[in-house]
Amino acid sequence: MQIDDVSFAYLCDEDFRGGLTERGDDPDELLVTYARALSTAVANRPAGMTVTTHMCRGNFQSTWMTSGGYEAVAERMFDEMKVDGYFMEYDSDRAGGFEPLRFVPKDRMVVLGLITSKTPELENKDDIKRRIDEAAQYMDISQMCLSPQCGFSSTHHGNKLTRDEQRKKLELVVEIAIDVWGEI
User: What 3-state class would DSSP assign to 69?
Assistant: First the structure.
């Protein structure tokens, strides 16, 4: 089961964090509150059910809502949020570097959202493989997966890609995953 959650991605955004502070909230305390609430919600899941959290940065008609690297939330988020994996958007510079992955617990997975679902242009396979290698400097590659950074539509409006362009993006994900991790 995948839980889409915007709160963690929003807490990466310095402007959003500043707004929280101005109104009297502590962004770091909210992070812990959100992580514990999510963890409590899935604590009694059936044996064998895998739960991941997608840290969504917005996905309405090929637009986005937040920017900022995961460094501001990574250590506490990975420590407090008791899920099996984290779906992290890394398709643009807006997400910062891979350094925060150093905090991922050894028993968790990270889905690297390196392929954008916002534009039709196909990423270069070698560029994506290099980015996976960069991420592997901070966590074990066997704990990683590859995916588009988000779905192709969060609303009925969709993103600005045709179905054929979406299919080509998914085919690219599969090709790269086989190159990096081998046959499934």
Answer: coil
For 2-179, CATH gives 3.20.20.210
Rounded Cα–Cα distance for residues 59 and 53 (Å) = 16
What is d(CA 21, CA 62) in angstroms, rounded to the nearest whole number? 29
Report whether 6 contacts 63 (CB < 8 A).
no
What are the Cα distances from residue 137, in Å, to 17, 121, 128? 28, 27, 15
Which tokens hold the place of 24? 């009297």
Domains of the chain, residue spans? 2-179
> Checking phi first, is residue 62 left (phi over 0); if not, alpha (psi -120 to 50) or beta?
left
- Does the structure show a pLDDT above 60 at 60? no
Residue range 151-174, pLDDT digits in tens: 666 554 555 678 898 899 999 999
